[in-house]
Amino acid sequence: MRPFLSFSVISTFTVLATAAAAVTAGGKKPNILFLFNDDQDLLLDSLKYLDSVTERVQKDGFTFENHYATISLCCPSRVALLRGQHAHNTNVTYVSAPGGGYEKFVLSGQDKDYLPQWLKAAGYSTSYLGKLMNQYGYYNYDIAPKGWDHFDGLLDPYTYIYNTPIFSLNGARPRYYQRSHQTDVLRAKAVSHLHTLINSGQPWYFTVAAVAPHQQFNETGQWPPVPATRHQHLFPGLKAPRTKNFNPAVQRKPSWVGQLPVMDQSAIDFADDTYRRRAQALQGVNEMFHELLDILEAAGELENTYIVFSSDHGYHIGQHRVVAGKMLPYKEDTNVPFIIRGPGVPRGQKTQLPSNHVDIAPTLLGFAGVAEEKQPVFLDGRDLSDYWKPAGIAPEKVETVNIEFWGFGLIETATGGGQSGNTYKTVRVVSKEYGYLYSHWCTNETELYDTVADPYELTPIPVEAAPRLHSRLNALLLTTKSCERDSCRNPWSTLHPDGGVSTLADALDPKFDAFYESLPRVAFRECLNYLLKENEAPFYPKNVEFGEKYRDKEATDGLFTGSTGPVRVPEVGNFGDKYEPLEVIEERARCLTDDELVGTAGSVDLRSL
Ligand SMILES: *[C@@H]1O[C@H](CO)[C@@H](O)[C@H](O)[C@H]1NC(C)=O
Ligand SMILES: *[C@@H]1O[C@H](CO)[C@@H](O)[C@H](O)[C@H]1NC(C)=O
Ligand SMILES: *[C@@H]1O[C@H](CO)[C@@H](O)[C@H](O)[C@H]1NC(C)=O
């Protein structure tokens, strides 16, 4: 039970309203189609190249303009979404060991208790197609990820090589879809499976997780994405938007980003090439989305299906002098598209209230008719369908977003670069009246931006200029960086359990000066690439659990050393001059040979679990 009066009132309404929405006229629970892209930005206008979403989901749906990924990196962001918990509570904090990776997710037992299993318990069939998370690969594919009735996953390291699509269906020997483009294979599989689901008569939850517009990562480096050949001529001359923070002449940033030189012409050309190829790579995805929506429409299922569109995190191209990549606390990397259309969702409306990926699990469970008290106790987020409820039910005072990171910060160019120990804690405050970004880096440097006056996050406000504001944001970060459950949803109430403070504006009252000045500063002992409790103390409240009760902590501490196997199937060309149906694509496909399956697996045999 959530202890706050305002919340229990909201909850009662939510449960009633959700239960009413859960079964539509036909008596069948609504389906959920989750369209989940990889590295797709919101702020660099990538949605312009996806009219399936803007014309057919957004116009008829509800847009969350201030939706944030709580960690700007694929694997930890996906685990946070699927478990409904911040990365500091899953301790899957990076794409590889020791911080994270697929094997850490499995070893910690979190794969036995996550979103697909919860939806199955609610009567849904569950399907996943495409990229799940990093280091699910050709060396550990054979135990299919748990929870899915149908799991057809891309295998590492080929996930990021657009013309070497290799999938494993339900743990079967991997199939190499030679001479096909990855997005075309994904589309053919998605179309075929959607027909199967519609014919099944059971309510279904289906995630289609494209890799586009992610960079191509292969043995020689990080490259702009490789679109299907039929799209490679599109948008000639298209350049990365010259936002105010694109390659700024003056750089006022802490940590390694602060040391970056101005981008030279070749770096700018790479940034522009990346931008144009991302727009091209999205065209295959756009065709797929249109076709899936057409199928739902023709089958009369569109109005009984929630369509959810998002991305694991955002992307920057030249902002703050970083040529290409994610992994930073700034807005381009963390503010992501999040749009829902479906039964009972208002059409063409939007909200500025902040939300984030840990809110998605409770929201989808709400769509499936799972009452709040039946949801897992460890969820850190809130049901976002409250956001379109009438005043009085819709929350008014949500304003904090937790954002965090541990590990290497990669510059995604051919030559790479970046820095280890790109570790920081961030809190964002988003309200109608004000907005701030406050970060504390593992170097103990801090940065504070007024995101209303300085939306491009260029000019930090020094401590001396706003000591009261700094003291409040330090306290808020002290709470959010280790929050769980209610302290994530209502951090101001955690700081003020007697009530009276539910926003930053309330907390700025000078009568609280002594309290805030008495609290310790957020600190890191050293720059580590993973979460170690001792390294990140102090916390507020003092005793925090980091979700340890809800996962097998012992199984992953220390021993875990997974790695991605070598590329054994070489790239043989560029494909996709025309889109072909699955039968034709399958005719060319073959299974991987024993030789192609020899890899350097992770250190642990997942079969023993
Ligand atoms: C950060 O500050 C804390 C508290 O003052 C100190 O103990 C710690 O050594 C500092 N860490 C670094 C990386 O400078
Ligand atoms: C998180 O994982 C790291 C690396 O395996 C481990 O050393 C650490 O103790 C874990 N932290 C928590 C809070 O479980
Ligand atoms: C890696 O990808 C780049 C960009 O598409 C391509 O030019 C290069 O040939 C690829 N490398 C290998 C080893 O296939």
Automatic annotation (TrEMBL):
> Out of the domains of life, which is the source?
Eukaryota
Keyword DNA damage in record: no
InterPro entries membership: Alkaline_phosphatase_core_sf, Sulfatase_CS, Sulfatase_N
Gene3D superfamilies named in the record = Alkaline Phosphatase, subunit A (3.40.720.10)
Q: Which GO terms describe its molecular function?
A: glycosaminoglycan binding; N-acetylglucosamine-6-sulfatase activity
Keyword entries, A-Z: Glycoprotein, Hydrolase, Signal
Q: Which Pfam families match?
A: Sulfatase
Domain Sulfatase N-terminal as annotated: residue spans: 30-370
Q: Which residues form the signal peptide?
A: 1-19
PROSITE patterns per the UniProt record, alphabetical: SULFATASE_1
Question: Could you say which protein family the record assigns here?
Answer: Belongs to the sulfatase family.
Which PANTHER family does the record associate with it? N-ACETYLGLUCOSAMINE-6-SULFATASE FAMILY MEMBER, SD21168P
In its UniProt entry, what is this protein called?
Answer: Arylsulfatase
